[in-house]
User: Which sequence fits this backbone?
């Protein structure tokens, strides 16, 4: 029951640069940080990429970086708040590359605000972007993947909300726990179409946002991580690549924590 | 995901998932020391594989084998604990299980993996390394049986993996489990052969509509061992076609 066009496990040498040859991947929020890291890994694995985001200049930069490394990518502006723009991104992928085989739903925001000061508008913006946006992206890709006889969806969730809490991120944590909950029902609905959907929960990853915290704060974070270092965006990319490939054809509705063991200790180390 | 120049130990390599993992590691460039109480399968008759026919619960034999596996190649990068038994019929609800059966299932499925790990980890500390333990969805939920000793051993394996991940992380030794659902292996084939309706029921209960293959488990195992999973430790990767998502 391996979806057509996806190499069954065992027939490909595990890994290797051609894992996504001939595949088209739509990656949301791909202009920077983890999304951009995923784009670079997927391009190196042979996929044609449709990158979305709100910042066109940063998007074009990401496209140039992929092209400079020999990959194929285009950028199309999309805002997760705007369902039509998400649908348009899928339509662009169909026009330019003939469809979508892989969705990586990565776009999201994490503005910190304590519950005491949180407004309904703060709550709604984070929920609309992260959680309702996930629903938009999954729904928009569904008919295209169904028509192709299968597909792979990967949601970029977080350890925050699913496994741990973080002061100031109650709304964000709720959306990430919500994404995992959404995924489990989606997995059951999509399985008959040969579409798998899984999540990744990154821990502390070295992104532009995190670098802003400063060296002392980062050193303190590294002390709390059993592997004693931060993760790299490419390491989220590598996990997404596995889930997006034929190697994971029997995995659906699962979430892989990629955190260097940070959530393992019983108490903060 | 390349394994060239790496060296692995795989227990339970005499058949099923362990055999598939050992063969895939060799195909991907690794050398493998394979352990099993069963005789060597023809598939592992190749120069990159050293086959040691032994009982994994024999602590001295395991310690000696691990030491020699390291010595032969001057390094040890990976350990896969795939040895395990599911004793359908004898391993039942704990109320109905003979204490000797309980002890033996725990010895083979859990304590042997502990012994392989404790002998191997000090040898992996020079260059870092990774362990993968083949547990089961039964270790996260309940087994279909009941098969309580099996279930408790697999839950123990999952907990052991997390303990290793936490304490050995600073030495760049990672530890994860793969938790397979219904996989068609020699362990379960006789059961399905005797009861085809049971097989059909399992297929129908699996959202992706098929039983798993040893290849599915091996692919997940190789991913977790590989450098592609370099920031992943202490996780349990369920490979079950969506089986445990749905209420039965």
Assistant:
């Amino acid at each position: 029951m391996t979806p057509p066009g996806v190499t069954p496990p065992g027939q490909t040498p595990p890994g290797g640069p051609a894992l996504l040859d001939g595949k088209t991947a739509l990656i949301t929020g791909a202009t920077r940080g983890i999304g951009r890291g995923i784009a670079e890994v997927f391009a190196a694995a042979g996929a044609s990429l449709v990158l979305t985001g709100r910042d066109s200049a940063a998007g074009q930069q990401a496209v140039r970086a992929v092209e400079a490394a020999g990959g194929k990518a285009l950028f199309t502006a999309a805002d997760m708040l705007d369902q039509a723009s998400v649908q348009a991104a899928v339509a662009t992928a169909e026009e330019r590359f003939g469809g979508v085989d892989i969705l990586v739903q990565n776009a999201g925001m994490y503005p910190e605000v304590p519950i005491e000061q949180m407004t309904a508008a703060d709550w709604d913006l984070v929920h609309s972007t992260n959680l309702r946006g996930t629903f938009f992206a999954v729904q928009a890709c569904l008919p295209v993947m169904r028509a192709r006889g299968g597909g792979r969806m990967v949601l970029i969730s977080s350890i925050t909300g699913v496994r741990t809490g973080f002061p100031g991120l109650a709304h964000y944590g709720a959306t990430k726990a919500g994404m995992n909950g959404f995924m489990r029902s989606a997995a059951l609905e999509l399985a008959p179409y040969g579409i798998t959907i899984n999540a990744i929960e990154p821990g502390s990853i070295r992104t532009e946002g995190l670098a802003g915290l400063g060296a002392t704060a980062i050193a303190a974070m590294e002390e709390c991580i059993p592997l004693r270092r931060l993760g790299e965006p490419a390491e989220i990319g590598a996990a997404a690549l596995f889930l997006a490939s034929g190697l994971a054809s029997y995995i659906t509705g699962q979430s892989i924590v990629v955190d260097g063991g940070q959530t393992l200790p019983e108490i903060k180390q | 995901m390349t394994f060239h120049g790496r060296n692995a130990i795989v227990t339970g390599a005499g058949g099923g998932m362990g055999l598939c993992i050992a063969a895939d590691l060799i195909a991907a460039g690794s050398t493998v020391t394979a352990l099993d109480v069963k005789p060597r399968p023809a598939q592992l008759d190749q120069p990159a594989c050293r086959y040691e026919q032994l009982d994994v619960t024999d602590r001295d034999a395991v310690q000696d084998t691990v030491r020699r596996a390291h010595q032969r190649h001057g390094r040890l990068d990976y350990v896969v604990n795939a040895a395990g038994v599911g004793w359908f019929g004898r391993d039942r609800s704990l109320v109905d299980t003979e204490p000797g059966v309980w002890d033996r299932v725990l010895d083979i499925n859990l304590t042997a993996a502990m012994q392989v790990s404790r002998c191997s980890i000090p040898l992996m500390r020079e260059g870092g390394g990774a362990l993968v333990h083949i547990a089961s969805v039964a270790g996260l939920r309940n087994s279909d049986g009941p098969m309580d000793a099996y279930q408790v051993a697999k839950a123990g394996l999952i907990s052991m993996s997390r303990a290793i991940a936490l304490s050995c992380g600073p030495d760049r030794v990672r530890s994860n489990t793969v938790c397979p659902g219904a996989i068609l292996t020699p362990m379960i084939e006789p059961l399905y052969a005797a009861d085809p309706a049971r097989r059909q029921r399992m297929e129908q209960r699996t959202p992706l509509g098929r039983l798993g293959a040893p290849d599915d488990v091996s692919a997940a195992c190789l991913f977790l061992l590989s450098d592609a999973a370099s920031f992943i430790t202490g996780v349990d990767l369920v490979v079950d076609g969506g089986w445990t998502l749905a209420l039965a």
In short: Chain A touches chain B through 44 residues (CB under 8 Å). The beta strands of chain A are 24-27, 48-53, 72-77, 102-105, 151-156, 195-202, 255-258. Residues 1-17 of chain A have pLDDT under 50 and may be disordered. Chain A has one domain: 24-257.
